[in-house]
Amino acid sequence: MDCGTGMYFRPSSPFLRVFAVSACVLTLGGCLGGGARDDTFALSAVAAAEGPSAKSRQILVPEPTALKALDSEQIVIRLDRSEIQYLAKARWNDRLPKMVQAKLVEAFENSGKLGGVGRPGEGLAIDYQIMTDIRAFQIETNGGDIARVEISVKLLNDRNGTVRAQKVFQATAPVGGTGNRAFVAALDRAFSSVTGDIVAWALRSM
After folding, report:
1. What pairing do the DSSP bridges indicate for beta strands 146-157 and 114-118?
2. Model pTM above 0.85
3. What own/partner pairs with CB < 8 Å and gap ≥ 24 does 181-189 have?
4. Which pLDDT tens digit goes with each residue over 115-171?
5. pLDDT band, very low/low/confident/very high, at 48 (cuts 50, 70, 90)
6. Is the residue at 4 inside a domain?
């Protein structure tokens, strides 16, 4: 990883790879982000999704669960099946699960198909909960740079605690350029596709 340019690289030697990751961990203000010069990114607004009306339903969108590697403000680069790094000099403007929750709420509200959409603590009389787990939200470099977003969703009947439906949603998007902005733009496109699919599926499944 090149701390000076904000880009990452994969060292050719296994020893150098371990050394590079260790060096990044030790210099948190550089490779792993958190410094004053980091670029800060947000997910863009999500367009309203298509689906049947469910005006008689009110839903709750809790914060998604995620592995520790994704439960942070860092932007994940997956080099292969077992090795990850973080995008240098770049970070999300909040923890990723919290950002995903906010955008899911926005997407369901934008649909205009529901009687109410809320988060925990807002006092709605809930019919369903949208339970989500972020399985992937990363740039993958093995075989070409692509963004991958994968989110598992359960539609939970809040009245009786049963799972009405569940599905895993996934989308990829090619990285159209170089640098941090290109990586984030690809992640944003993949996430927008997944979010639209989640909203449409949930509306059909209620």
Report:
1. unpaired
2. no
3. 181/39, 183/75, 183/77, 183/87, 183/90, 183/139, 183/145, 183/147, 184/41, 184/75, 184/90, 186/139, 186/145, 186/146, 186/147, 187/75, 187/137, 187/138, 187/139, 187/147, 187/149, 188/43, 188/44, 189/147
4. 999 999 988 899 999 999 999 999 999 888 999 999 999 999 999 999 999 999 999
5. low
6. no
Q: Which residues are CB-contacts of 22 (< 8 A; sequence separation ≥ 6)? A: none
First to last CA, the chain: 46
Q: What does the alpha-carbon distance between residue 191 and residue 44 come to, in Å, rounded to a whole number? A: 9
Could you tell me if 126 and 59 are in contact, meaning their C-beta atoms sit under 8 angstroms apart?
yes
pLDDT confidence band for 13 (50 / 70 / 90): very low
The answer to whether the beta carbons of residues 117 and 103 sit under 8 Å apart is no
- Write the pLDDT tens digit of every residue in 93-120: 999 999 999 999 999 999 999 999 999 9
**What CATH number is given to the structural domain containing 23?**
3.40.50.10610
Q: Please tell me the number of Cα atoms within 13 Å of 1 on its side-chain side.
A: 27
Q: How far apart are CA 11 and CA 3, in angstroms?
A: 14
Tell me the residue range of the domain where 90 lies: 14-205
